[in-house]
Design goal:
CATH superfamily of the domain at 153-337: Histidine kinase-like ATPase, C-terminal domain
Pfam family, one: 2TM
Protein name: 2TM domain-containing protein
Keywords: Membrane, Transmembrane, Transmembrane helix
Number of strands: 7
Helix content: 55-70%
Length: about 450
């Protein structure tokens, strides 16, 4: 037991002992006060600490965040059985052992059923409070943990995305310089034209590489310019066909994806005037396809594999839609998803915090309302019981408000803690994934 809980139970025991000693003890003596204190300590520590231990044990074995419905059912059954046993034992020790009012047979004959039943209700209220408190603490802990995890995921994804984009600049420059080096020896005039075109294209690379997505239209225009650059070197050995639907032009793809795929087509296939390489760029069913006839060349050295892998990884950070590759004996095709909207990795953190805050705020209001109802019940009902016993001890009318209001408190607790319906905020990550956050 924690030190704070131990001190609280001591104060509760002392307060209860003083209350019963002052108002319900005829002979005011240190012996009777000591007896009241012992009885109060017994009730406080056996019922209070017992319910606390049960709650702690269930929190470890059946956390609210992992098995809400199962935990709720187990809690109800456990606290009912445990409190009935504890109350009967405490009342037995108080009435039979300490006060010696009746024998064991008389105690279990049914004469004290009302006292036992009343005490069990008080114990159940205490236990309900402890379990509700545990539920709220678990909710706050889980919400905080999920928000932190989402922050880390978003920061990691953003860092990874930046790293991938930074590959594009040296990758393009390195390959372009290799082409230029070849042209200088083969055709100096073409090398001069290539240099002029390359400066224009490289400007686009610098402008677009920091963006997460660009329009299909911008990417197609750039690809056509890049194809002209390739035609400068390969002339009739390479042909290009573009057939992208007009409605797809305003949608989005990852930047420089076409350039990387066009470059791969040239890099991995041979092209001659007698056997030209035909590269097609077209759209179908929300997919942008880049297809070439397969004329595989022998590689002198192993490819670094940056191009296609870079595209696949960037798409995986932005959407659940996958990049598909088709290969047959005659052709090689890459299918890029065309996206309808622009997701933003950085905004994931803000959206996660906002959603989590809204849910937490709503949850706090619901739980505060339940606690207010429960505390009011715990204060008013004992007062009505005492009032009834003082004014009209032969007619127990307090049963009706106790039962009616008690059923209302139970129904309120069921609605707040969603027993049987599942925890609305069981896992924040599942909600975020459902609404396409974080990807």
């Amino acid at each position: 037991m924690k030190r704070k809980s131990f001190i609280i139970l001591l104060w509760i025991s002392l307060g209860t002992a003083l209350f019963f000693f002052i108002f319900f003890t005829d002979e005011k003596s240190m012996k009777n006060f000591g007896l009241s204190l012992i009885v109060s300590l017994m009730y406080s520590f056996l019922i209070g600490a017992g319910n606390g231990a049960i709650n702690d044990f269930l929190n470890k074995r059946f956390p609210w965040s992992e098995a809400t419905t199962k935990r709720a059912v187990i809690s109800i059954v456990t606290i009912l059985i445990a409190n009935i046993i504890l109350v009967y034992f405490c009342n037995y020790m108080n009435i039979v052992v300490f006060q010696k009012e009746v024998s064991t047979e008389e105690y279990f004959s049914g004469r004290y059923n009302f006292i036992n039943w009343f005490t069990i209700n008080i114990a159940l209220l205490i236990s309900t409070f402890l379990h509700a408190k545990g539920f709220m603490e678990e909710l706050k802990k889980t919400s905080r943990k999920e928000v932190v995890e989402q922050k880390l995921i978003a920061k990691s994804a953003n860092a990874q995305f930046e790293s991938l984009k930074n590959q594009l600049d040296p990758h393009f420059l390195f390959n372009s310089l290799n082409v230029l080096s070849s042209l200088i020896d083969e055709n100096p005039n073409q090398a001069q034209k290539f240099t002029a075109s390359m400066s224009k294209i490289y400007r686009y690379v610098l402008e677009q590489k920091d963006k997460e997505l660009v329009t299909v239209e911008d990417e197609i225009e750039f690809a056509k310019t890049y194809c002209q650059l390739l035609k400068t070197r390969f002339e009739d050995s390479v042909d290009f066909e573009f057939n992208v639907k007009k409605e797809d032009m305003r949608r989005f793809v990852v930047p420089l994806s076409l350039q990387l795929l066009l470059e791969n087509c040239i890099k991995h296939n041979f092209a001659t005037s007698s056997k030209p390489l035909l590269i097609k760029v077209f759209s179908e069913n929300d997919i942008l396809c880049i297809e070439n006839n397969l004329q595989v060349r022998e590689q002198m050295k192993e490819s670094a594999g940056i191009g296609l892998a870079n595209i696949v990884q960037r798409y995986s950070l932005l959407t659940k839609k996958n990049v598909f590759i088709e290969k047959s004996e005659d052709y090689f095709k890459v299918k890029l998803p065309i996206l309808s909207e622009k997701p933003n990795i950085v905004n994931t953190v803000v959206e996660t915090e906002d959603k989590a805050y809204e849910r937490a705020q709503k949850r706090v209001k619901e739980i505060k309302g339940f606690y207010g109802n429960l505390i009011s019940y715990c204060i008013v009902i004992p007062f009505l019981v005492i009032l009834n016993l003082i004014t009209n001890p032969r007619n127990y009318w307090f049963y009706w408000p106790m039962l009616g209001w008690g059923m209302s408190v139970v129904a309120h607790g069921v609605s707040v803690f969603t027993i049987g319906k599942g925890w609305e905020e069981k896992k924040i990550r599942e909600i975020l994934e459902k609404n396409n956050y974080g990807k």
